[in-house]
Amino acid sequence: MALLESQVDRTTPRGAAPRGRAVARTSARRLWIDRLARWVVTAGGLAIIASILGILVFILIEVLPLTRPARVEVGRSLPIDRPVEAILVDEYQTHAAVLGPGGTIRVLRLEDGAVVADTALLAAAAQHPASPTGAAPTPATLVAANAPPGGEAIVAATSDGRFLGQTVDWRVEFDADQKRSVHAELPQPVEIELDPERRPLRTFAGQLRGPESVAAAAQLADGSVAVVRRSTTENAFTGEVETSEERLRYPAVPELTTLLIDGEQRNLFGGTASGELYWWRLDRGESSPPETLSAGSSAITAMTFLIGDRSLVVGQQSGAISVWFPVRDPGDEEFRLRRIRDLPAHDAAIVELEPSKRNRTFLAKDAGGTLALYFSTSERTLWKGRSPVGEATAAVISPKGDGAFLASPDRLAFVAIDNPHPETSWRALFGSVWYEGYEEPDQVWQSTGGTDDFEAKLSLTPLIFGTLKGTFYSLVIAIPLAILGAMFASQFLHPKLLAVIKPTVEIMAALPSVVLGFLAGLWLAPLLERVFPALLLCFLVLPFLVWAAGVAWSRVPRRLRGRFPAGAEIFLYLVVVTLGLGLCLEVGPAFERLAFGGTFQSWLYDSTGMRYDQRNAVVVGLAMGFAVIPIIFAITEDAFSNVPRNLVAGSLALGANRWQTVTRVVLPTASPGIFSAVMIGFGRAVGETMIVLMATGNTPIMDWSPFNGFRTLSANIAVEIPEAPFGGTLYRTLFLAALLLFVLTFLVNTAAELVRQRLRRKYAQL
Amino acid sequence: MRADPGQRQRDFLGMSMTALCGGALALNLLLILGLLLLIGYQGARYFWQKDLVLIERADAPPLLGEIHAREPVPAAGDAGEPAHRLQLRVGNRDLTGGDFVWVDEAAISGHRSPADAVLIERLEWGPFYGRMVELRRGDEVLAAGGDETWRAFAPLHRIKLAERAAIRELEKGEIGEINHAIEKLRLAQRRLELDDPPPAERARRAAELEAALAARQAEFDEAAARLFAMRDRLEAERLVLEAADGARKEIPVGSVVRALRPNEMDTLAKLGLYGSRVWEFVADDPRESNTEGGIFPAIFGTVMMVFLMSFAVVPLGVLAAIYLREYAKQGPLVRMVNIAVNNLAGVPSIVFGVFGLGFFVYTIGGTIDQLFYPEALPTPTYGTGGILWAALTLALLTVPVVIVATEEGLAAVPGIVRAGSLALGATKWETTWKVVVPAAAPGILTGVILAMARAAGEVAPLMIVGMVKLAPTLPIDGNFPFVHFERKFMHLGFHIYDVGFQSPNVDATKPLVFATALLLIVVVTGMNLVAIAIRNHLRRKYAGSAV
Question: In whole angstroms, how large is the CA radius of gyration of chain B?
């Protein structure tokens, strides 16, 4: 036939014009149609094959941006006439509020550098009452200023022991034509007297979160640390405004180089020139000493909080950058500050650390003029390069995280940041990460949280684990049932019976998985919770009953047995299995009392500490096993049936019995087929979505226990992708999960297919 | 042979192992049969009306309802005969807050089946179990007492059903059309703003639109006024009911779906009721957030989506198979492509869903929206899940099935048939199209049916490219352009997931889900059986003729 076809091919007019001969009568139109058809079929066929490849390519293209580093471009810069000590910008990067040396806050329009508003911070708060000592008031100056992380405010410390704070409210308005305009509003500045003796403040820290929450701290000239916490609450009913103020004074510590207070007014951190870190817990009062830790011998030169004020980033003289946060100590339930991770060290001292208000990105600048962008959770260096300004006096990341401003004494430089997916790295996706609030590094999937400062936890490991766990339990159930059943069906069953039984099992494959999932979740799970011991009993009782039935059948006189087609005992087994199941259910409660002394669940909890969840891996295993059985069954049965008859006949002729023939001749010959059947069943179980979605609790935990749930890659996609913003990190991470599934199943299926083809060739030779 | 004890031992072992294999097969069969029976029984039972029982309790008010389940009381470590309890469906959710109550059998002092107990299926609040008290129109009592009310109720109810149908007709027909027209005019206004034509033109067209809108609005107001009048008339007569514990409830006759006295019905009447409920189930819209009523929109959505998918998948799959089998040069490349196609069938369906969402919905749909529907933005038209994208996604998912089946069909056509056709002077295309493909038609049909069955049962990819729990409108209606490919739709499989798992009242909806599952299984396995039958027929037909 192959020969014939090749001849046919050669005689086919391959688009050539008819030249004489018999085909000359074929009209040009018909040949033209033939050519067109060939072209269309080929193009269409190739297009479809290409589109299949296209699926993989498209998914890959959606995933790839995850690996892209941030793009940072140095943009325009604005000349300024006096140095800037602190800077804030609005969300749309149209205006900047800068603090100049004289204590004046100016609002600049970034388009042209025009000053649209200004206020003298020092002057506005200068009405300082005469000092109690009666000394003549000397004009105060600012000794330091900064824009604290996480707020929209500029704070400053004065030479006469005061703390000044100015909030900047950006008002965004849209006019009738949807044109946007931004105005800065500068409310009354806040003033707090930190040093009653009016000495110049040394290192200081402050936080203004709206008008109702102000905190300030400073190291005074005598080395002691003064803290003022002020909060204003408005009574919702009476409208009465109540201000509470608390003053704390901590004993002297060595000279601090940096000081930082959080927005909750709970924690005060200080760093010293010898690399010591101090942590004052303000809620515990003055008597509680600070916790002291060493960050190495190098001086601490910069500190900041990442969004949420829990992670503390510490930069040092040596160029080291480390992230710290309090971790609950499992021993005494006490929070202790821990050094969580180190980012690649710079060559020169870190002089500036600026956090993003969007995520855990931060900007670091060293004394050598190197600028770098890091992401804490994923430990990624997003970008590293030269700073556009040599000597930066202040820096800020814009509120949307899409740009940064760096101020030098004469210029305000803008860099554009395109940083779409900082959260992912190899370690964040597959390894252990120490997340804020966790006791140790862990692999966690928790993509969304309730707050803006939520730290996305995008580890795929628990999901891969869940996928493998579900697959494992379903294969444990499916493989023995399917292979043994297929063995019986192909080797011991009369063809007439097989013609009925095989399609019956194959119909199982056609059952929509949503139906199986529904049954598993709403029928099987509650049932199993009640009768789990009966299921255990089944494993013991059913094989025994079937074996007994088989023995009984073999004792039936051959004359009587001969009247039934081969394998008719299957109906006997069917009855026995049904009765056995009924028996197990009937004696289940008694067995439960006897074997577990009460309920199985409480026994399980008491003896192993495992909890029994209603929707657990056993339920999934049974339901998904049910879905996988027909696939393995069909392929295994084919492999068995196709073993050449002469091998079987030879073995039987040599005196082996049926079972010996099956196990020593048929099974080894067909084993590659069985392997590929298992592989294809594996592929099906890995990708199954609806059953696991409906029959597990979908909790992404990592625990092999058969009595709790899990979350698989596929169910995770189904649950989360409808809510994932298009093009976001979560969206792409879910595409990565899909890619993993695609590649995994494709590889497994290809392997299975190749094995099958080789097997087919082998059979052909035998 | 018999004399060898070793051989006898081995024979016995072989026999035992064979029995175990047989047991495994028997268990497989039992699983599938048991599952089909379970769903069949549970699904079919949903429509059957049981008798109502009045349960009297010593220390609590009596309960009226249907016995739903009976189970042993979970009492830990309690030896001896376990006590049982009954789960009663008592309805009256508006009065008691729940549909079901558990009653310990020990607490029951007596039960009977009162003949005048009625079951009222309502549009809202689920079923009501109780007695009829009276029928009134305003303050006028039309009928009083159980039996008299029962007799007077039926004719009145028929009138009210007709009125309700008329209201529905008005809402769906006329008002729906007006709404559609108003929506279109609004979009046209928006479009005008976006187009930004010269001021004079703009003012003229704006005025035109304004006038059209005003006219439509007037029509709408008029229709709405009529609708309100009809609604008032529908609710004029009220039925006063009394629950078993004596609580009274007044409901408009117009909101009654069905009023029954199950205890007076004979088997024939119950069978009639059964049929009517089955019809309601397949032909009506859902009520009470999908927990009652029918599933017609889900059936419609599934069927339409499957057919749309077939229109896409059949030409593509057949074309690819013809190319691979008839035109491509057979070699390692085609073998690889064949393996790839085969394996694509094994790629998880959710992956196709992800692809469909990213490619069809966001990329293609988003582009279409920007080019053709800018006036509706930011509300997406095609840039969100819809029936077209769902169908295309499933077409990709099922194209391997069609390719493989078609290839099998083409391969079964003997080469001698091709040679004969070519020898008679037919071109390659003529041979393929007029001789080979018709001969392979059953194979192609098998593939198509299998693909449709797969598509009908597939849920995971559809969850993310176009299904919703409740679609307000069908993808086909009387408004131009009649077929709305961008609309979201309901699907039987998703209905099972949604009603079974997202519903607040799982006990009450489980029977409905079983019925839906039964319907889905009947459709899917039916299609598969047909495909298997065709395949077997095909194999027999060509088994002899293959060269």
Answer: 31
- Which of residues 60 through 89 in chain A touch B, CB cutoff 8 A? 62
In whole angstroms, give the CA distance from residue B547 to residue B541: 13
User: Are B248 and B322 in the same domain?
Assistant: no
Other residues' Cβ atoms within 10 Å of the Cβ of residue B298: 30
Q: Count Cα atoms within 13 angstroms, Cβ side, for B295.
A: 26
Give the minimum alpha-carbon distance from A462 to chain B in angstroms, rounded to a whole number: 19
Task: Tell me: do B157 and B264 sit in the same domain.
Answer: yes
* pLDDT single digits (tens) A520-535: 988 898 888 888 888 8
Q: Which of B283, B317, B350 is the last residue of a domain?
A: B283
Fold for the domain defined by A461-526+614-765: MetI-like fold (1.10.3720)
ipTM above 0.85, yes or no: yes
- Asked if B140 and B192 sit in the same domain, the reply is yes
The region of weakest confidence among A206-210, B297-301, B376-380 is: B376-380
Strand partners, B140: B137
A554/A541 Cα distance (integer angstroms): 20
The verdict on a CB contact (< 8 Å) between A487 and B21 is yes
Q: Which residues contact B210 (CB under 8 A, 6 or more apart)?
A: none
DSSP characters over B381-394: SSSS--HHHHHHHH
B196 phi-psi bin (left φ>0, alpha ψ -120 to 50, beta other): left
Our CA-based measurement puts residue A681 at a distance from the nearest CA of chain B, in whole angstroms, of 9
Question: Inter-chain contact A718–B15, Cβ cutoff 8 Å?
Answer: no
Contact A166, A121 (CB under 8 A): yes
Return the DSSP state at A339: E
Quick one: B266 and B310 in the same domain? no
Q: Which of B9, B35, B323 to mutate to test the interface with A (most CBs of A within 10 A)?
A: B323
Which domain, by its residues, includes B540? 296-545
The residue ranges of every structural domain in chain A are 73-125+140-440, 461-526+614-765
With CB atoms and an 8 Å threshold, state whether A45 touches B327.
Answer: yes
CA A457-A382-A300 angle, to 5 degrees, is 90
Q: What share of residues in chain A are helix, strand, coil (percent, to 5)? A: 40, 25, 35
A729/A718 Cα distance (integer angstroms): 16
pTM of the model: 0.87
Q: Which A-chain residues 250-269 have CB contacts (< 8 A) with chain B?
A: none
Domain stop point among B283, B313, B347: B283
- Chain B residues with CB inside 8 Å of A574's CB? 26, 29-30
- B385 and B427 belong to one structural domain: yes
- Read out DSSP for A288-338? SPPEEEE--SSPEEEEEEPTTS--EEEEETTS-EEEEEEEE-TTTS-EEEE
DSSP annotation of A361: E
Residue A717 CA to residue A732 CA, distance in Å, equals 11
Task: Summarize pLDDT for A88-121 with one digit per residue, the tens.
Answer: 888 888 888 888 877 888 888 888 888 888 888 7
User: Distance, in angstroms, between B419 CA and closest chain A CA?
Assistant: 6
Has residue B388 been placed in a domain? yes
Specify the CATH class of A73-125+140-440 in words: mainly beta
Nearest-by-CA chain B residue for A2:
B415
> Per-residue pLDDT averaged across A389-403, rounded?
84
DSSP string, A390-436: SS-SEEEE-TTSSEEEEE-SSEEEEEEEE-S-TT--HHHHHS-B--T
